[in-house]
Amino acid sequence: KAGVTQTPRYLIKTRGQQVTLSCSPISGHRSVSWYQQTPGQGLQFLFEYFSETQRNKGNFPGRFSGRQFSNSRSEMNVSTLELGDSALYLCASSFLEGGNTIYFGEGSWLTVV
Amino acid sequence: GENVEQHPSTLSVQEGDSAVIKCTYSDSASNYFPWYKQELGKGPQLIIDIRSNVGEKKDQRIAVTLNKTAKHFSLHITETQPEDSAVYFCAASPPYNNAGNMLTFGGGTRLMVKP
Questions:
Q1: CB contact under 8 A, B103 and A98
Q2: What is the pLDDT confidence band of residue B95, given thresholds at 50, 70 and 90?
Q3: Fewer CB in a 10 Å sphere around the end CB: N or C, chain B?
Q4: Which residues, other chains included, contact B59 with Cβ-Cβ below 8 Å and sequence gap of 6+?
Q5: Between vectors from CA B27 to CA B11 and to CA B49, what angle results, nearest 5°?
Q6: Taking CB atoms and an 8 Å limit, are A48 and B42 in contact across chains?
Q7: Any chain B CB within 8 A of the CB of A102?
Q8: Cβ B100–A103 below 8 Å, yes or no?
Q9: Are B84 and B94 in contact (CB under 8 A)?
Q10: In this structure, are residues A42 and B107 in contact, taking their beta carbons and an 8 Å threshold?
């Protein structure tokens, strides 16, 4: 069974640009969540989607957004990139809602220059 | 919101020794506590988890204990091996209605196992 797949794995963007990251959850998993990992702030929750609806959102500015498609695949978008947005963005999926086992992908490394 | 603290931030042990990593959480309503191992350049890998209706769980060389009264949980790795070297994260999940899968992570522990 394939794990959580994230694309692209590495990307470099310029300040002010926008970026879209993609995530395919484990087959059959309907919940997809996103996390940001930085050396300074650690692992922080961005948002979570279930059945195409955003259920939770972390404490991030509105420049960070996401969506989920009917096949459970998800994308997150960051607009007007800032240097501080450089991070590893991790997607995670789980089978059902509410406290079930969560599996992470390998992440997308974003560098903003 | 939930706050998870993890100690120590770095831990160096000799191969074959045991390693213990401790976490405390603030929200007494949290009911799910996973542990992840993250190797360099990779995403976090779930190694063991425990729910609040269980006090201890073991999987081969790895065990987790939970003390709900004191609001702390610990990861125990016995007979450590060099391949156990990685960063370990604890996390807690709140059980609020419709909370979904929102994990609050500890700051991580860099475990180094010396051959």
A1: no
A2: low
A3: C
A4: B47, B48
A5: 50
A6: no
A7: yes
A8: no
A9: no
A10: yes
Instruction: Return the residue of B nearest to A50 by Cα.
Output: B100
Cβ–Cβ < 8 Å for B3, B26: yes
Cis peptide before A8 (omega within 30 of 0): yes
Query: Cis omega before residue B8 (within 30°)?
Result: yes
**Residue A35: DSSP 8-state:** E
CB within 8 Å of chain A, chain B residues 51-70:
51
Each residue of A73-109: pLDDT tens digit?
999 999 999 999 999 999 999 887 655 788 999 999 9
CB contact under 8 A, B101 and A33: yes
Pairwise CA distance, residues B61 & B44, whole Å: 19
B49 and B63 in contact (C-beta within 8 Å)? no
How would residue B16 be classed by pLDDT, with cut points 50, 70 and 90?
very high
